[in-house]
Amino acid sequence: MSMMQPLLITQGDPTGVGPEIILKALLAGTFDALRRPLVVAGDVAILRQAAAIYGQSCEIAPGEGLATHRLRLGERELGVAALSKLDPLRLKYGAPDAACGQAMLDYIEWACARCLAGEAAGIITAPINKAAIRAAGGDFPGHTELLAARCAVEKVVMMLAGERLRVALVTTHLALREVPSALTTESLLQTLRITHAHLQRFFALPKPRLAVLALNPHAGESGLFGDEETRIIAPAIAAAQAEGLAADGPHSADSLFHFASQGSHDAVICMYHDQGLIPLKLLHFDDAVNLTLGLPIVRTSVDHGTAYDLAGSGRASHASLAAAVRLAAQMADQIS
């Protein structure tokens, strides 16, 4: 067994696709080349049920280190930290109860604590159900907010990344009509600083090139279609440049992605959710990774939800999970 610190995969919603895509990736040999051990923060019975989807029986042996158990599927093994004891026979795909919500919370809390304690190298999160977490008494909108609170970080940035494109968002889950008033020079400057620092630390880019998008068509056309560019965005870019950041813009969003996807920039700073995610998913629908920038720990995630329509079928793609594990491993190697 490698002495390197393990990467932790949180199993996510027991009634979603998380457990089965973890085992699908294992069976596909996705983890074979990893130098670090992998430990799933999850539930042995739920994982055993997921193995049955693929016609596999699990052998279960005692674990070591952070893994309480080892799951053997054929010639492949996976460490499991058994943090819940749910009864698969009482659960229905797509219908998580409060016990499932508590389990999802427990997986994330445990994994975050292990990383903060220096016992693990990073977290890869499978999708959760926010309503079930609320039913269990969790008061966080999602993974990101919970991790930020546990890491005592006020501002984090959501990035989605693929081989050809990385996008970072200034605003995330907001009604489109609320975006202009939510944009401030300070929030954009903070986004630029966090993205710059993260790409330096975890991606070994000494001077990351950041393209900053405009909010309006044609970058506002000299104020004809709005003045956010001159009032909010340009001053933030100037302030970032004064701090030594390689940021430029505001760029018209309709053409910048063409160049960024060919390597002109290391990341594109987007003003709102769909501005960044439409081009990202056009290029990387199956294999994009969700990253949380600004945390002191490595955290990557699948770029999809619980996919209840596919849960239990074995048809859900493991490509995003595989990419998230690979990226977490690369990031962990940069700082270890």
Describe this structure in words.
With 336 residues, the protein is of the alpha/beta class. It has helices at 18-27, 44-53, 98-116, 130-135, 143-150, 179-182, 185-203, 228-242, 253-260, 273-284, 319-335, and strands spanning 7-10, 38-42, 59-62, 69-73, 76-82, 122-125, 157-161, 166-169, 209-213, 246-251, 267-270, 289-293, 299-302. The protein contains eleven helices and 13 strands. Strand 7 and strand 8 form a beta hairpin. It has two domains: 7-153 and 295-335, Isopropylmalate Dehydrogenase; 157-282, Isopropylmalate Dehydrogenase, CATH 3.40.718.10. The mean pLDDT is 95. Helix 1 (18-27) crosses helix 2 (44-53) and helix 7 (185-203) crosses helix 8. The protein is elongated, with a radius of gyration of 21 Å. It has a 13-stranded mixed sheet, sandwiched between helices. It comes from Geoalkalibacter ferrihydriticus DSM 17813. Catalyzes the NAD(P)-dependent oxidation of 4-(phosphooxy)-L-threonine (HTP) into 2-amino-3-oxo-4-(phosphooxy)butyric acid which spontaneously decarboxylates to form 3-amino-2-oxopropyl phosphate (AHAP). One of its GO terms (molecular function) is NAD binding. Keywords: Cytoplasm, Metal-binding, NAD, NADP, Oxidoreductase, Pyridoxine biosynthesis. Its EC number is 1.1.1.262.
